[in-house]
Write a structure and sequence with these properties.
With 230 residues, the protein is mostly beta strands. The chain has helices at 15-21, 31-35, 39-42, 127-131, and strands at residues 47-58, 63-68, 71-77, 89-98, 105-116, 139-150, 158-163, 166-172, 185-197, 203-210, 216-221. The chain has a five-stranded mixed β-barrel with strand order 1-2-3-5-4. The relative contact order is 0.14. The model is unreliable at 15-21 and 224-230 (pLDDT under 50).
Amino acid sequence: EHGALPLTACTVWDPARAQRNLAPLPVLTTVSQVRGLSEDEARRAYPVHLQAVVTYHNPVATNTFVQDRTGGIYVFFEGQAEPVLRAGDLAELEGFSGPGQFAPVVRGTRVRVVGRQALPEPLRVDMEHLFAGIADSTWVEAEGIVHSIRRREGQNPILGVNWGVHNFSAFVFGDTELPHSLLDAHVRILGVCGSRFNFKRQILGMQLFVPDASFIRVEGAASQAPPLRN
């Protein structure tokens, strides 16, 4: 259509065959069950009913992550207004599985906050493993040297962080102005590990989604680092 491909995926529906083979899909009740689906299986829209803690929620960017005892997952709320959530909310979530652009996700249709819960213990793994994508959507601890602080009008601050030959962005939710003293500092940051990927669902790196500035801890000034400016 005008030189563009309007259809990227489809399912051939045979009503007669469906009537013969129709069986209800089981309800998935843990994050690991959803994450364990193949891309094709996730497209079948398995019903999902989770109880999990909200680890990150940004209603403007429409980014939401939740985590239960089996793992973390990305949630988007299609066809409805963004719910009022904050990190640490214990939520009952209903929806359906979706293939996502990198890994299976939950297409949320209903969410209800039932209390508050401590955020999970961070997954502490070697930083190389974070860049390899093994902690996608999971609450983690990352570290590195801050090389930039930027903030566009109407957006949350973003830290640019170096670790060895790698770099990642840490998106810090909230209105708090991050101090310029963070530049060149060695920091440890708690947040949700999000994967960077290409259109082939291949991992390119990682990014961090941080609920607020209190999850950033300064370990010390960077050694032998030239002064940097944002």
